[in-house]
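Lay summary. Proteins are chains of building blocks that fold into shapes, and those shapes determine what they do. In this project we predict the shape from the chain. Here is one chain we studied, written as its sequence of building blocks.
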Amino acid sequence: MTDKEALKAAIELTQKQFGSLDIVVNSAGIGGAGSVHLVDPDEFDRVMDINLKGTFLSCHYALPIMMEQRSGSIMNIASVEGLEAQEFTAAYNASKGAVVMLSKNMSIDYGRWGIRINAICPGFIETPMSAAIEDPEMREAVEDAHQLGRMGTPREVANVCAFIGSDEASFVSGAALTVDGGFLAGKRFGINKSFGLDPET
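And here is the predicted shape, written in a compact code that computers can read:
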């Protein structure tokens, strides 16, 4: 995602091999831990280069092809952390928030060519990145933060991308679509117990 020539070649090869460039999903990304005063500036640049600039570059090379064919769907994988900040992840939050705003900007600029651009904002997904949460209590807390009581799977995110990339979603553009098991829906504080209510009934 940071090698401009390789990225441009891959996009051009895709168009040549299939005759068109219909769908682009920018899903490469890395984490970035630390509050601002603790993040090494070089590490901040690395997170931004992969998560944000890589997304920009992919779109930069894909959009002229889609403009010529007057169609296309681009999905940029952002995060719930691009919509709601979390502690100790300043660089990651900043990069994913920028991906959301870049996606909205592009949906405005390129909609006139029939190109749909959306940000997909997953919650915590069972990937090598989330596998870094090794503490059982922390993992349980993260799972409980999702209203479905678990992390998502890569396939659940891919299924949403398949829908958004299809003609069935032909009027969806400029959205920041959460795939988060209710992570951003709100929080539970157990208030029901003080009213004598049982959530299981």
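What the prediction tells us: The radius of gyration is 19 Å.
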